[in-house]
Amino acid sequence: MTCKRWLAAALCFCLLLTLGACGSEPASSTTTTVATTTTTAATAENTTTTATEATVTTTTTTTTTAAVTTTVTTVKKPGISTGRVTTTTVTTTTTTTVPAGPYEGPLKYRHNAGKAVIIGCDETSEPVVIPSSIDGNPVTNIENGAFEGCTWLVGITLPDTVKRLGGFAFKGCTALTAVDIPNSVTEIGDEAFRGCTELATVTFPRSLKELGEYAFYGCAKLTAANLPNGITSIGRAAFCDCKALAELTLPSSLTHFGNSVFYGCKSLTVVIFPSKATTISGEMFRGCSGLTTVTIPAGITSIGKNAFFNCKALTTVHYGGSEADRNSITVYDGNDALSSAAWNYAK
């Protein structure tokens, strides 16, 4: 009898435990992991599947380059669907700018009042590209003599932050064939490209105001000089001995010419002098043996010594004034070519 009572008590106790477990609700849980994947089980009932646990997976990836740090966070959590568990993905990208490190390259430079100045360059077989800024400072000036004598320089790219090309800046760069000067440069210094014997093409900027003395002296392969409207001054012998120069544009803004500007430009055939000019300087077209036609505005008051010396092919002069106006021009010695040419008068 005692054994039967003991057995009955044990059965009752087990039954109570079972009823208590079945009557309680399941405990909810949230799992968060980093850079892992979590799979959540689902319970099916009458073709409807409901996620029994709210499981969230968070993946964070951080990428850092020299200039940018990018963090991508992906959050995955199960939703409710028919027949299967769905996953919702949310991606957030945050980009933080990191200050650039010090310049690394062939250029030599210095900083001056918050601006970078190029002062030289180590030898390289590749074309040189000058950045718009160095160490956070804009590059505004190519210093005097910065690339002088760099016979290895095969190409140069200038940024549109540069305002001035210094004197002798590219003097003697005999491998340089073309230069595109950006529309920020206002001054090209004395002898800036002197002796660049292979230089054939130059794009002059619209911003240019002054062209220094001997700037392109001896650039024997330069074929064109289309100067922009706005330039006011060309220095002495700026294009002297540019033997291949055949195309020339002298805008109306030009008022000052140094002596011998186009001395020895044998390929020039036609020259139209700017309308606001008052003087044709000495030896300006001396030795231009291919020159056949010149247009001279009525405002010219003097023609310097030897301005057209040895211009043996000159046959025609178009003059903006009358014959009487022509007789009032002061013409110095060495301009016999003008006297022998036929003059056409506008008045």
Structural class: mainly beta
Helix content: under 10%
Number of strands: 27
Can you tell me the CATH architecture of the domain at 107-266?
Alpha-Beta Horseshoe
The pLDDT mean sits at 82
> How many DSSP helices?
3
SSE pattern, N- to C-terminal: HEEEEEEEEEEEEEEEEEEEEEEEEEHEHE
- Share of β-strand residues: 25-35%
> Main sheet?
9 strands, mixed
Structure description:
The strands form eight sheets. Strands 6, 7, 9, 10, 12, 14, 16, 18 and 20 form a nine-stranded mixed β-sheet that branches. The chain has a four-stranded parallel β-sheet with strand order 21-23-25-27. It is built from three helices and 27 strands. The chain has helices spanning 2-23, 323-327, 336-340; strands spanning 42-45, 48-51, 57-64, 68-78, 87-97, 107-112, 115-121, 128-129, 133-134, 137-142, 156-157, 164-165, 178-180, 187-188, 201-203, 210-211, 224-226, 233-234, 247-249, 256-257, 270-272, 279-280, 293-296, 302-303, 316-319, 330-331, 342-345. The protein is elongated. Helix content is 9%, strand content 31%. Among the domains are: 107-266, Ribonuclease Inhibitor (Leucine-rich repeat, LRR (right-handed beta-alpha superhelix)), CATH 3.80.10.10; 269-347, Ribonuclease Inhibitor (Leucine-rich repeat, LRR (right-handed beta-alpha superhelix), Alpha-Beta Horseshoe), CATH 3.80.10. The model is unreliable at 14-58, 60-75 and 93-100 (pLDDT under 50). A hairpin with a 3-residue loop joins strand 3 and strand 4 (68-78). It is mainly β and 347 residues long.
